[in-house]
Specification:
The protein is an alpha/beta fold and 341 residues long. The chain folds into two domains: 242 residues, QueA-like (3-Layer(aba) Sandwich); 79 residues, Thrombin, subunit H. Helix content is 18%, strand content 28%. The chain has six helices and 17 strands. Helix 5 crosses helix 6.
């Protein structure tokens, strides 16, 4: 298949620039794969589509303020870092801009010296390995020095950092939010559990590569970025018991879906464990464990659009997207949601 097969035209004004006032009052497009029908609801109505015995799989990763704006120590030249992953102790893999200023051995200063960094090595993808120097606890220093790394299509300043976190975010490490989860509130999650739906929490730290365009025309030639995951025994047990009892496993977001599909065997059961995954899901993929998906609306020609097309069919997804555009849904990270079942 070709990347161009997943293109569509989106009016720029439909790209949501800010979250709505109440998380669970975003719009919800409901797509039934069995008959192709489409319903238009409000997100808090999701409880009407969940059955007793189902399982929701949530990604409980927490976004860190991974964007750092600083200066070169000797010349004062500006520099931007985006933290990608911690390698060991205070050594991080980062993206740098401009790269020509980040030569090996160069030192940078952030937040008036609150945080300093030295470039140790170059990485294959054009980034750098850097060692940070600071006083105190790194996470506390980063919280003061860093900025939330919003997607490049969001041009407005985020006034409340918490709105780019899910209400169940727990394990720090993501450079981007698992945005399908942004629609949930504590009260909505309580109502869902009270209706007999199980909740399994997995962790996948979302990398900045989720925003990178596919540069190859043939899908088979695209190499996915790796992301770190962890699934504990409790979550695996909930998912497996749901499968065995005939309930549906419903992924909240493409990150949750990619996690459980990465660790599922051919019987649809998952094993607990940690690791990294570069799984690339596109039409033709046979799902092992996922029965349904809650997700946002994704960029044209993106790997995420290819993933939802694998679940619902490319032509059907493009038809649904056309209707969403016609109905003026809000798209991308701070936009509205879709339930595919």
């Amino acid at each position: 298949m070709k990347v161009s097969d997943f293109d569509y035209s989106l009016p720029e004004e439909l790209i949501a620039q800010r979250p709505i006032d109440k998380r669970d009052e975003s719009r919800l497009l409901v797509y039934n794969r069995a008959d192709g029908s489409i319903e238009h609801r409000v997100f808090k109505d999701i409880v009407d589509y969940l059955d007793k015995g189902d399982c929701l799989v949530l990604n409980d990763t927490k976004v860190i303020p991974a964007r750092l704006l600083g200066k070169k120590e000797d010349t004062g030249g500006s520099m931007e870092f985006v933290l990608l992953s911690r390698q060991e102790d205070d050594v991080w893999r980062v993206l740098v801009k401009p790269g020509k200023r980040a030569q090996i051995g160069t030192r940078f200063i952030f937040a008036d010296g609150l945080l300093k960094a030295e470039v140790l090595a170059k990485t294959e993808e054009g980034g750098r390995l850097v060692r940070f120097h600071y006083d105190g606890v790194f996470e506390e220093v980063l919280d003061k020095a860093g900025i939330m790394p919003l997607p490049p299509y969001i041009h407005e300043e985020l006034k409340d950092r918490d709105r780019y976190q899910t209400v169940y975010a727990q394990h720090s490490g993501s450079a981007a939010a698992p945005t399908a989860g942004l629609h949930f509130t504590p009260d909505l999650l309580r109502r869902i559990e009270e209706s007999g739906v199980r909740i399994a929490k997995v962790t996948l730290h979302v990398g900045i590569g989720t925003f990178r365009p596919v540069k190859t025309e043939n899908l088979e030639d695209h190499h996915m970025h790796e992301e770190v995951y962890n699934v504990d025994a409790k979550a695996a047990d909930i998912i497996n018991r749901t499968r065995d009892a005939g309930g549906r496993v419903i992924a909240v977001g493409t990150t949750s879906l990619r996690t459980i599909e990465s660790i599922a065997d051919e019987t649809g059961h998952v094993k607990p464990g940690s690791g990294s995954t570069g799984i690339f899901i596109y039409p033709g993929y046979k799902f092992k464990v996922t029965d349904a998906l809650i997700t946002n609306f994704h960029l044209p020609k993106s790997t995420l659009l290819m993933l939802v097309s694998a679940l619902a069919g490319r032509e059907e997804i493009l038809r649904v997207y056309r209707e969403a555009i016609e109905k003026r849904y809000r798209f991308f990270s701070f936009g509205d949601a879709m339930f595919i079942y």
